[in-house]
Amino acid sequence: MYWLVDMFREYASNEAIVWFDIGKGQYNAFTGESGNEILTLLYYFGAARIISLTGCNVEIETHRDFDIEYIQVDNVRQIWRYCKPDKINIISIEPFLNNDVIHAKLMSDIIDSLVWLANRGFIHRPLAVFYDELHNVWPSSGHGIYDNRKAAGIQRRSNNQAKKAVQKLRSTGIRIVGSTHQWTQMYKSVRLSFEWLVVRRGTIFSNDASDLAKYNPRWQHMPTWAAYIVIPQRTHLGPFRCLYYKIPDHLGSVKYNGIYQMQIE
Question: What pLDDT does residue 53 have?
Answer without folding.
Answer: 95
